[in-house]
Specification:
membrane; 1 helix; transmembrane; 64 residues; mainly alpha; transmembrane helix
Length: 64
Amino acid sequence: MWLTTQDGTELGGSSRVELNSTSFGSIILIVTGTAAGALVLLVMLRLVRRLRAAKAADSAGADL
């Protein structure tokens, strides 16, 4: 993409610009870490509930 005049003449020359953005680095790490921790916690909670429900179903089946 080039900057041109109305008649199509290119303006200026090409230049290379390097951009390094680290101002949000720590914030992104905190958000990502919190999301990963929540994911692990919720998976563990689901597994515990599933195991408890299976155990309860086995106990109810044994009582019959």
